[in-house]
Amino acid sequence: MDEFVHYQALGCATAPLEREVPLIRDGCFYHDLALPLTHTLLPLRSYAYIGSLPSLPFYPFWRPIQDPVAVRVQGAVFFLLWTWLAVRLLRVRTSAVVVASLVFPVFLASFVVDEGPVGVSAIVLLLALLATRRALDAATPGGAVAWAALAGFVLFLGVWVKLVFGWWLPAVALFAVAEAVRRARSASEAARRWRVAIVAGSLSLVLPTLVLLSSVDRAGQTYASTFRFSGVSAEPEAVQAVALRLWGYIVDASLVAPRNIVFPRSRLDLLPALVTLGLLGLGLSRGASRRREVAGWAVLAALTYALVAVSGHSQWPHHFAFPVVFLVLALALALDAVGGRPRLAAAALVLVPWASLGSRLPAATIPPESAREKDQLLAFVRAERLDQTTLQVHSSWGTYYIAQLFGDRERMLVYVRSAPDDRVELERLRGVAAAHGRPVLLISSRRWDRLQTPAVAEALGRPGRSWQFGSWRALEYDATLSLGPSPRP
């Protein structure tokens, strides 16, 4: 569902006939932006607050696989790449990063069930941190400026991926300050030594970000106007409510991917939180250098947690991933600092919740919007070449964004949230389908009386063919026939 929203620009670019479909909210090209002082709309966004950049790294997985499983493969590869970058950043054993990444099952799941997009954002974050450190370690002023400029531009790419990447920017700034002060005798000396590099890094982040945020959509609104969706609240009660929702991922390991699978609760679900407390305690009791590093990453996790809690919309794993990234880095440092036996004991404890989740898998339930039947229906549509011969009208995100990416090059589809109730829109789409000699294929998970409504009967008539997979249905209407009364199921 949401994990395919990030790649809408790719789906639109690879389906030429999408330009002949009426412009509908959240459809192809609806979120395009024109750069300042220009009038040409460009595919810079995939959604209101999600940039189109994730389509580029997804392309190498999408092109050869041509199946929704491509996003799972990408998530696994991104996790491995993140692990490698974390090892380089922390200078620790690979096993320490792997075990730390498994402490909270939701962290790994956030890469594989990537609704964030978490994977590419986490990789961009580590690349920016590594470039920042290289800037501070550069042997020449020119090298420092070049690496700082690269770090700033990489951070801009993170903002382009999704605006909430900004939750990480204060932590990146604190990391840079701490690293600079560690190499100098004081903060003032650090500022003098790397003054030009600081300016270069700041400009390479701020300038392109201002250009992006100043770009306007077809309604004349700037990209910055999408901050209205942030739900930022200064009310203590609202912030507390969000913080408690996020806290659930710390104390409940069953919340692996709550929008995709619901596990029964278990007392073992508290174990990741207890392991975290134990590892942080061990890490903080070690030598001064390790203690400082462990504490530093833990502080960054707490700071980011507070920033995420300010947004009233924060409640899902891809929101929790922002603070937990830094917590995982702190745990990796702590694991690397302890001896072999404590490390093995920690690894054994980390595996217990995973084994518990596996044992509870037969009793787990799947939410309707993530049901397997949805994927079976879309696979049927592709296998029967209905994506090549019909105009698809989807009333659910769960099918629209997947069908937009996978299918015949001649596919035509739209997303109309209120399709079964919007007679005017249906009649307009019927005309488009008739002009292309195609039937209308209405895809929805609504029950029959909410799907075959009077508006549908008046605009499309009776379905010539229908298919049902669980609660998901596909109804085909001949757009060229005269209308008649609708049949009962």
Description:
The chain contains 21 helices and nine strands. The protein is an alpha/beta fold. The chain folds into two domains: 347 residues, no CATH class; 109 residues. The chain is globular and about 80 Å long. The C terminus is likely disordered.
Question: What value does the Rg take, in angstroms?
Answer: 25 Å
Count of domains = 2
Global outline: globular
Cα distance, first to last residue? 28 Å
User: How many runs of DSSP E, i.e. beta strands?
Assistant: 9
The spatial strand order of the largest sheet comes to 6-5-7-9-8
* Helix content estimate: 55-70%
Q: Helix and strand string, N-terminal first?
A: HEEEEHHHHHHHHHHHHHHHHEHEHEHHEE
- How many helices? The count is 21
* Largest beta-sheet characterization: 5 strands, mixed
Low-confidence stretches: 484-489
| Class from secondary-structure proportions | alpha/beta
Beta strand %: 5-15%
Average residue pLDDT: 93
